[in-house]
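Example (one chain per record):
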Amino acid sequence: MSKYLHGVYPHTGDTPMNDDSTVAFAQVVIGTAPVHMVENPSAAVNVPILCESLPDCKNKLGYSTDFENYTACQSMFTNFVLKKNAPVVFINVLDPTKHKKAAEEKEYTIKDNAITITDGVIVSSLKITKNTETMSTDEYVTEWVDGKLVINFVGEQTGEVTIGYDVVDPSAVTKDDIIGSYDPRTEKRTGAELIKDVFPKCGVTPLLTLAPGWTTDDEVGAVLMGKTEEINGCYYAMTLFDLDTTKAKTRADAIKEKKARTMNENCFALFPMIKKNGYIISYSAYLAAQIMEQAAETDGITCKSPSNKAMNIDDCVLADGTSVFYDQEDGNELNAAGIVTIISRNGWYSWGNNTAAYPATTDPVKRWIMTRLAFMWIENDYTNTVAPQIDDDLNKDKIIDNATTSYNIKLASFAAAGYIISGKISYTAADNNVNSIANGKFKVKTLLAANVPGEVIENEFMFDLDALIEAVTGGAN
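Predicted structure:
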């Protein structure tokens, strides 16, 4: 049975080769966040949460620089500390009611009418005992300060208390939590399945999807990539994959691993990792932030190459902290295999323009990251722009002209600004037969020329013998 269509459905065709939307576009980050630090942890589990700043993240999801255990915080750091990007959508899968363990009861000495605990305490599980009597929650208040739980007593307290509690256990989160599930009986979604809920719940369109610390697993990466190839039936996004630097420690290793991974033109492969302020961070978290930072410079449109851009990092590393130094030649070896990397050239630079589909394909709309991103952005923007016209009267003066003329004006403005080379939407009778029109369906075509990166500059240097002779002889024969 064919799929019933009702809406706007753009799609990208293969390139023939010769020898005002007000909707924001955002990253969607899936991972673990320290939600035990927020007032209502259960409200921050398996639901898309839009954040505009680091304080917003702290309030809604919690924040920790323990980036290995709290992987979503890598993107909080890169977007809101290193960059100034907003918004970012987070999907936290760490559930304190599920991913937890009991801590051993300990005695604490009250100092300045307070106690500080460094563990990841689940506040609802706190049991404070003094002189064999359990204290009520009215006798103290808690607050998180720099990742530590501070218990402030309401009345004057001295001496010692015994405290027991449960702690969150990020190690109990598995790739199955990231992949998620869908229950058709309840229509409840978890993990990557929640990408479908981002636009309806947050009002932003996913454009980049990532799971720092998790896409090193092929199954996670493949599922995430699959979920972003068609979102809500009409949107498209790119997935950022990290190659596993615990296995791939050399360029040859990285190339071998990339070949073994499930990847296509809707993702790009990244190797290795970065280090900043002593923290080791997935490259995907940084590059996604960099792409969105560049988009902010072009009216929000992702149309620039992320390659050869200076990086605000301290080191390029493997997961174990081993420093990795690649020059341009080394970087080119990885680029030739469809891997984006980092090179050292009096500073650190992102290096690579190819999606993971390269070298299997050289179609520019599938090969080049900047071209792929531009096509996806414009396709998604077209959907958002034209969607309000769906179900209007099907006549030339209304829906047909509106679906072409109004967006042609937009495409012309994009071209004038240099965001694309050219773009034009056309409607032809040949593409719209009587049967289609009678069934409320019509088709337009867009011819779009996005920019491609100028990857190579060749300059042939030759010795100017005539100038030498002129200098030596003064022009005398």
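Caption: The radius of gyration is 27 Å.
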